[in-house]
Amino acid sequence: MNNKRNLIAAFTMASAMAVAALPQAHAEQLTIPVGSQADRSLVKLPANGMTGGSVQSRWGAPIEIRGPVGQPPITQWHYQDFVVYLEHDRVIHAVMKRRK
C-alpha cells in the first residue's frame, strides 16, 4: 500500500512540475490601423495648452462643436481633418480624423 501511495505521489509531483514548465499564457499580436504617419506630418495640429481663441484665429471656426461633457468640462471641436479636445478653454489634445 505504501508503494502505491509513493508511486501516486511521485506521479502527481512529476505531473505538477511538467504543467508548471508549460507557458502560462498565449498572446496573439493584433494589428490595428492608426492612420498614416506621413499624413499626420503634413497637417499642423493645435498644440496642447493653446487657448480656444488662438485655435480659432489660426484654423477658423470649427465645423461642429460637441460638449462640454463631464467634470472637468471637455469640449470637442471638429475640423475637416482633425478634432481638438479642450478642457475649459485650453487644448488638451488634438487628433487626426481617420480617412474613410
Strand content: 15-25%
Figure out the total of helices. 3
Q: What's the total number of strands?
A: 4
Query: If you compute it from the alpha carbons, what radius of gyration comes out, rounded to the nearest whole angstrom?
Result: 28 Å
Uncertain runs are: none
Helix content: 25-40%
Averaged pLDDT: 82
Q: Layout of helices and strands, plus pairs?
A:
Layout: H1 2-21, H2 37-42, H3 52-59, E1 64-69, E2 74-78, E3 82-87, E4 90-96
Antiparallel strand pairs: 1-2, 2-3, 3-4
Overall description:
The chain has 100 residues and is an alpha+beta fold. The chain has a domain at 37-96. It is 34% helix and 24% strand. It contains three helices and four strands. The protein has helices at residues 2-21, 37-42, 52-59; strands at residues 64-69, 74-78, 82-87, 90-96. The chain has a four-stranded antiparallel β-sheet with strand order 1-2-3-4, with no helix packed on it. A hairpin with a 3-residue loop joins strand 2 and strand 3 (82-87).
